What we know:
This protein is 2% helix and 61% strand.
Amino acid sequence: DASNSVSFVAIGALNTVEFFTDDADDRYDNSRIISPEQRQYFAGVTWKRLVGDGLLTTTVGRTFSRFVTVQRDSLNPPQEVFGNRSREGENTLRVDLVLPLSRTVELNVGSVSRFASRLRYDIALDGGFRLDSIGAPQPLAVDTTFTAFRQAAYAEVGVRFGPRVRATLGARADYYGFLEGALSVSPRIGLRAGVGSRTTVTLGAGRYTQAPSYVWLLGDPVNRSRLRPIEADQVVLGLEHQWRPDTRVQLEVYHKWYRRYPARLYRPQAVLAPTGFEDVTSDIPFGLEPLASVATGRAYGVEAFVQKRLSAIPVYGILSLSLSKTTFTSLDGVARPGSFDARLLGNLLLGWRPGPSWELSGKIRVASGLPTTPFVTVGPLAGSPDFTQYNQGARLPLFHALDLRIDKRWSFRRVQLVTYIDVQNVYGRQNVSRYSWDARTGAVETDDSLGVLPSIGVNVEF
């Protein structure tokens, strides 16, 4: 009705991987890859209600993931060396209220409750792929079920000083019941001010927290007492300029300080990078090891953004450029590059729509290489990463690629049909995604990305 609306959304995903083990080469190649089969869904109902001049939004949702992550050796038949058969289900209740207190003051308050009703983990990792700091095997076997609760509440006040100046002041509190009742308070402040008719200056500062992944609690019996929410204090200064009605330029400078980052006790030079793993032979997977929230880090850089929207001039484009540096300091006290320390990231997208039926576009992608860790080349640990040189090996080569696409549209009375041809990496650049160890040759090899990748598609909108 005029004051209420209800919406529902559900998203599901299925991921299945099949391996062929017809010969020794297939079995060896497969032994270097984790098989990540997953079943996932999200469902949620949102109720929006007008409350006077304000808006009350209530959302009830559930997420669920079932993982069957397995890696096997190269024997015939292959034997399992790592298995993770887990289920994670979490229910969420979120309430947000936006309420104007006057013509110049607005209040925004809310709360988020999350209850993981059943976290089920069945994990087994061979000790040969879980070595401690002195190289001794530490096999892991976990079969457990537990629940987890966390609660957050926030409040923010926005005040307008004239038509082009707005200030916000707020704070958020997070309670983590599954981390022995850890409590984090995060203040935030922001300012947005117009300078002239087409330029705006923005300034923001605040603290943000992120909970450890549930699976990180299982790597050691005392991880639950040693892990705390990751904290990041950050400051961002920005400048926006409306160069033309269809063209916007933006520049931002930022600095972040990380605290309570998970340090790896078996790898005192390293922090736990929150990412997936492709191969248990190269590192301990998914944080299944002793951890402690004592590492620090920082990231700083500058980002530039230019956008040309489609207008009377039938050309559009986006240019983004980022220069940054990230370092982390773990238990050994040495600052090292972060695992995602790409110093340069650049994207240029250009498109031309000569008429309502045709569209031609292209994109250039450029990124400097990520840091790598050299391999031990001799002795019983040959082929394993040399963590004494963690993230201090040769960086991956410069990444660059050109993508091209053509779209053709047909419009009918109630249906729009769109067909396209898309070619990624047109000139077939063999970009290196990582360095890996070949146990058969006892040498380092490169893992290259796909060359030219064409695709065709059809979209029907009705």
